[in-house]
Design brief:
Two copies of one chain form a homodimer. By secondary structure, chain A is an alpha/beta fold. In chain A, about 40% of the residues lie in helices and about 20% in strands. Chain A has helices at about 10-20, 35-40, 60-70, 85-90, 105-115, 150-165, 170-180, 190-200, and strands at about 1-5, 25-30, 45-50, 75-80, 95-100, 125-130, 130-135, 140-145, 145, 205-210, 215. In chain A, helix 1 (about 10-20) links the parallel strand 1 and strand 2 (about 25-30). The interface of A and B includes residues 131, 165 and 166 of A. The structure holds a DNA duplex.
Chain lengths: ~220, ~220
DNA sequence: CACAGTTGTGACCTGGCTGTGACCGGCGAC
DNA sequence: GTCGCCGGTCACAGCCAGGTCACAACTGTG
């Protein structure tokens, strides 16, 4: 899941980013409104954690413009004041959820996760293929009844492949969905991660290679 | 929104139907597999609430045939067993969502609504001829139920021929569509690729040669 | 601090893909 | 007939996408 944290207090921004990364999310940070908009224009985010009082372009403004272009990104608005009035205003602007500072860290993470899960269709929370099952929410993966110990990246890649339901997913697409934007487009890390994932998944192979098109789950009947 | 409830326990079927009608949906009921298929043939439904264990034609069968004819109807599969295995199998068959009995009524309604809202999420683009089927999106090709292992070029050529629907496609056109533009116009590689493709497709021949004009899909006739 | 787990990198290997050219066979033109 | 052309078949060789592996940087943890 890709997240943009737009927050001008650098310490807070870094802390939030670090917290989200520990849950396997790919996080970018913007310290002011203009760079937030630039990031949003340049790449796709599932969730934007948006400080309302942002220098440069104001948080409200960003929220409005996201709503206007019917962006797929969900917005979690952060605010200093906790008045009900604020809350109402925020949601009116098109934010999808609202959190008053100071906030509890785990609550913030939970809400970001919930927002990321929400897009469009009710993705059945349980993913699977053959004897493999993945509970994206709980972060658990089993194969043939045995629990797999997957790293965050491995897990995220596997989730992507399962969501694609057999459509091949290119390395670029994986980079886009699992890694954050600071990633070198020529990196070989996807290759390595797929390799490690394959080893952990065991036999018989579940991840096919489709030459020049990417990787896909299943395939051989 | 039009909904078909295919469920053999009459009491349950009526209850479900009544519940959905309270949310303004137009609901028909089928108590066995055959009448479900008849209904589906006779009119269009946005969502099918489908019991997996259906007398007559089995729920799995119905699901498969809906997927095969690229129906616009979304399927919410109901099942007695709640094993993960079942869940996974159902989704594999082309169901769009899955619910284990006993289920919470309001959850069922919510899921049906969600499915109805998701406007015909693009069904797989399936190409085919006779006993050959090609899923261009997933990069899969089968003949007579057997998976074919095609190279990228072979696959692309086959796709071109299928899209042309029997119209002959010249080597020049294939070069243009499948190869990149820096390709020597006098190359013999098309010849070779068609040859390899024919071998992999097996008998009876599916690719005709039209002298001077190119290749076309369609065995003798 | 040591230690373990995760991730990215670069070097190396390999198997399959692909283009080529040589050769063959059939068919139509003459 | 037979010549010429179009297309089929085949073996071969180079190449490159992708697999594998070891290692190093980094991080969190006790």
């Amino acid at each position: 899941m890709r997240v943009l944290v737009a927050e001008d207090h650098e310490r807070l921004a870094r802390a939030v980013a670090a917290g989200l990364r520990r849950y396997g999310m790919a996080v970018d940070v913007a310290l002011d409104g203009d760079s937030a908009l630039a990031r949003l224009g340049a790449s796709r985010y599932d969730v934007v954690v948006l400080d309302r009082d942002l220098p440069g372009v104001h948080g409200d403004e960003i929220c409005r413009s996201l709503a206007a272009e019917r962006s797929e990104s969900r917005v979690l608005m952060l605010t200093a004041a906790s008045s009900v009035q604020d809350r109402v205003e925020g949601l009116g602007l098109g934010a999808d959820d609202y959190l008053a500072k100071p906030f509890d860290f785990s609550e913030m993470v939970a809400r970001v996760q919930a927002l990321g899960r929400r897009p469009g269709a009710p993705r059945p929370e349980l993913l699977g293929y053959r004897d493999l099952t993945v509970d994206a929410e709980k972060g658990l993966a089993d194969r043939a009844g045995r629990r797999l110990a997957l790293s965050p990246k491995e897990f995220a890649v596997l989730e992507c492949l399962l969501v694609a339901e057999g459509r091949p997913v290119s390395a670029e697409e994986l980079l886009d969905r699992v890694w954050d934007e600071a990633t070198d487009p020529f990196t070989t890390t996807v290759k390595a991660t797929i390799n490690r994932l394959r080893v952990k998944l065991g036999d018989p192979q579940l991840i096919d290679t489709v030459r020049e098109r990417g990787y896909r789950i299943g395939g051989q009947r």
